[in-house]
């Protein structure tokens, strides 16, 4: 038989547990990416002296493969006395990698703010922190939510790279099941279904958040 329903149901709980690891890695990585990306974008604008350094750092991260960055954090950092477990190293690598992309998304949002908003803040003698917190960020972030949502979906599809450092996420678990049973059709197909469902749920949540933010802006 090409497909064995009994075998598929037998391995489903194991894959479901692995899916939890995948979701955790994705959400933690996205939080790091969203927050760190915002920090990079804000510092780049608020402190012009750092613009060139941050630009080089962002391009360096975006121009190197994520897998290389995962290996670097997991295998090279211990040489400098920084030892990370596989899950932590993987999540940090994913978060830092996508923070570089998110920072450019935020920067585009900041660039779309009318110049008059910045000039009014200066005229009112507002601090940089107050300007970004109360004026710029509330206007800049909602329009870029769809782009950030795309990266959340992409993060789900990047988590199989963590199997390279033996993180027992969804894909690694499926490969182990396949190697032990010599049946790959069921585990790999179920992994595809899991990723499809998680991506669709993520996309739906992003659309919901986008609608809520748009309603808030209209009010």
TrEMBL record:
Membrane topology per record: Multi-pass membrane protein
CDD domains: TM_PBP2 (cd06261)
InterPro entries hit by this protein: AA_ABC_transptr_permease_3TM, ArtM/GltK/GlnP/TcyL/YhdX-like, Ectoine_EhuD, MetI-like, MetI-like_sf
Superkingdom assignment: Bacteria
Biological process per Gene Ontology, one example term: amino acid transport
Compartment(s) of residence: Cell inner membrane; Cell membrane
Domain ABC transmembrane type-1 stretches: 15-206
PROSITE patterns: ABC_TM1
Residue spans crossing the bilayer: 28-58, 70-100, 188-209
Family: Belongs to the binding-protein-dependent transport system permease family. HisMQ subfamily.
PANTHER family linked: L-CYSTINE TRANSPORT SYSTEM PERMEASE PROTEIN TCYL, MEMBRANE COMPONENT OF AMINO ACID ABC TRANSPORTER
Protein name in UniProt: Ectoine/hydroxyectoine ABC transporter permease subunit EhuD
Source organism: Kumtagia ephedrae
Phylogenetic classification of the source organism: Bacteria, Pseudomonadati, Pseudomonadota, Alphaproteobacteria, Hyphomicrobiales
Encoding gene (name): ehuD
């Amino acid at each position: 038989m090409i497909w064995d329903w009994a075998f598929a149901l037998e391995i489903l709980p194991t894959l479901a547990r692995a899916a939890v690891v995948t979701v955790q890695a994705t959400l933690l990585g996205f939080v790091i990416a969203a927050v760190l990306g915002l920090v990079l974008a804000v510092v780049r604008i608020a402190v012009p002296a750092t613009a060139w350094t941050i630009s080089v750092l962002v391009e360096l991260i975006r121009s190197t493969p994520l897998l290389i960055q995962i290996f670097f954090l997991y295998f090279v950092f211990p040489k400098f006395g920084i030892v990370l477990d596989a899950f932590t190293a993987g999540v940090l690598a994913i978060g830092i990698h996508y923070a570089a992309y998110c920072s450019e998304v935020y920067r585009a949002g900041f660039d779309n703010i009318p110049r008059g908003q910045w000039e009014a803040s200066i005229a009112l003698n507002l601090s940089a922190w107050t300007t970004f917190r109360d004026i710029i960020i509330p206007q800049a972030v909602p329009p870029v939510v769809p782009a950030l949502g795309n990266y959340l979906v992409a993060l789900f599809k990047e988590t199989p790279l963590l199997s390279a450092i033996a993180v027992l996420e969804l894909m690694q678990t499926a490969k182990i099941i396949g190697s032990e049973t010599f049946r790959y059709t069921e585990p790999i197909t179920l992994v595809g279904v899991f990723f499809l469902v998680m991506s669709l749920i993520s996309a739906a949540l992003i659309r919901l958040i986008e609608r809520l933010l748009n309603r808030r802006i209209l009010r």
